[in-house]
Amino acid sequence: MKRIEDDLLIVLDGAPYFQASAVTDLAARDDLDFVTLPAYSPELNPVEECWRQLQVALSNRFFESLDDLTMAIDSVLDQLSIPYMSNYF
């Protein structure tokens, strides 16, 4: 029995570009484990929580310049609460 702890776990959503030959060739490697999320399941995708936090912090705001927007994004990214990955698997 193969131990998943020894391998790198790759999580893919249902995007069509993950079906490209470069990705499917990687799936054949013994040291990588792939998990494909079900369609329309953002609650299972940790990056969606990061996007949600960015949206909450930056939506409904007016920025005078691109520099102001960039500084606001940088500030939010510094404070981002990264989801605890094991909650998702």
UniProtKB/TrEMBL annotation:
Gene3D superfamilies to which the protein is assigned, alphabetical: Ribonuclease H-like superfamily/Ribonuclease H
Keyword Transmembrane helix among record annotations: no
Occurrences of domain Tc1-like transposase DDE (ranges): 7-69
Family matches, as Pfam families: DDE_3
Sorted UniProt keywords: Plasmid
InterPro entries: RNaseH_sf, Tc1-like_DDE_dom
GO MF, one annotated term: nucleic acid binding
Keyword Transmembrane helix: no
The protein's name in its UniProt record: Tc1-like transposase DDE domain-containing protein
Organism: Halostagnicola larsenii XH-48
